[in-house]
């Protein structure tokens, strides 16, 4: 039908959200314009601000608008234990579910040679610097318990061993093949406490 | 856990989208920031632009960034037939499913006294002006076939009769209790063609 130029553009653009197809995008656009313009204005502003200001923590690679994220900058968190996770979302999940008081390192992925994802893409240079610095006593490998997550954990465990650092893997309370992000707090907490040396 | 101030704000703001809870909002935020920053930037810009520029058509009340929408401004569309719909989305649905070549009028709702929605909220003053102008021969009532949609159609039909304008109701090919937006094109087209005088 006719134009509705800007409205059509907005609907198309909403389809860039994961899980949103043309039909839900249309519903979202109408909802925002007819019932929540203030929410739409704020969301627009925050999206632009987030893209402009949110980068990666210099120490742990998580998403943050600061040079160093709040966990890394927090003097109350222990420097000798490092929890390795696949995604920035996993930092939140682990921190909410457990009593872990150390720091994190975010891979933003897992080793996957077939997809061209090797150590370089996962910040291993930064991770090895950290291992070489002499402050680390334990590395907790909290990558997903998928085949690739397991392989990544083993690879990092071997590097840690070379630096004389203890590497532990979160216990298999986590269902095999499962992804950390979708697991309930209780199971995850148990898995965390039941971790054993790799 | 720690701050992630701007990221948390963004996630909360994404929850203003219909059907989006905290968990999917988080997934959306991470997806945009890690994998589609250009899409996020564009969506942010379009949301702000849409809120600032999209208003209501002076003639038919649909959403448009122009003073008069493209359907109302189109000299090839007939001025003597007016299709009344509940929502701006219905304009698109009817226009895509049928061969209708007249114009539209968008109520943005339906009569619902219990919710305080009366003729004033649905633009009836504008609609009566249109009826009084002498250009209209037929009004097609394409409100939903819910109880309130039916009542709204009957109410408008009576006003039309006073102005000597023929009022038709789209046929009951549309399932009773169903909403226009979710009906397949074939059924809707049949209902449109099978319309009869109210
Ligand atoms: Zn950090
Ligand atoms: Zn119009």
Automatic annotation (TrEMBL), chains A, B:
GO molecular function list: DNA binding; zinc ion binding
Zinc finger (C4-type): 57-72
SUPFAM superfamilies per the UniProt record, alphabetical: Recombination protein RecR (SSF111304)
CDD domains, per the entry: TOPRIM_recR
Residues in Toprim domain copies: 80-175
A single GO BP: DNA repair
InterPro entries from the UniProt entry: DNA_Rcmb_RecR, Rcmb_RecR, Rcmb_RecR_Znf, TOPRIM_dom, TOPRIM_RecR
SMART domains reported in the protein's UniProt record: TOPRIM (SM00493)
Keyword terms of this UniProt record: DNA damage, DNA recombination, DNA repair, Metal-binding, Zinc, Zinc-finger
Function: May play a role in DNA repair. It seems to be involved in an RecBC-independent recombinational process of DNA repair. It may act with RecF and RecO.
Recorded family membership: Belongs to the RecR family.
NCBIfam families: recR
Descriptive protein name: Recombination protein RecR
Source organism of the structure: Methylomonas koyamae
Gene name tied to this protein: recR
């Amino acid at each position: 039908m006719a134009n509705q130029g800007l409205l059509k553009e907005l609907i198309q653009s909403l389809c860039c959200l994961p899980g949103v197809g043309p039909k839900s995008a249309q519903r979202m656009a109408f909802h925002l314009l007819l019932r929540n313009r203030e929410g739409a204005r704020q969301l627009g502003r925050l999206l632009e601000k987030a893209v402009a200001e949110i980068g990666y923590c210099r120490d742990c690679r998580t998403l943050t608008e600061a040079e160093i994220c709040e966990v890394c900058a927090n003097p109350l968190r222990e420097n000798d234990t490092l929890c390795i996770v696949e995604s920035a979302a996993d930092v939140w999940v682990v921190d909410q579910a457990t009593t872990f008081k150390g720091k994190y390192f975010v891979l933003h992925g897992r080793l996957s040679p077939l997809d061209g994802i090797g150590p370089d893409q996962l910040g291993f240079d930064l991770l090895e610097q950290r291992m070489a610095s002499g402050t680390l006593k334990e590395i907790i490998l909290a990558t997903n318990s998928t085949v690739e997550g397991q392989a990544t954990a083993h690879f990092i465990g071997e590097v840690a061993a070379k630096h004389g650092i203890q590497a532990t893997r979160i216990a298999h309370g986590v269902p095999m093949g499962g992804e950390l992000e979708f697991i309930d707090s209780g199971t995850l907490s148990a898995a965390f406490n039941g971790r054993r040396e790799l």
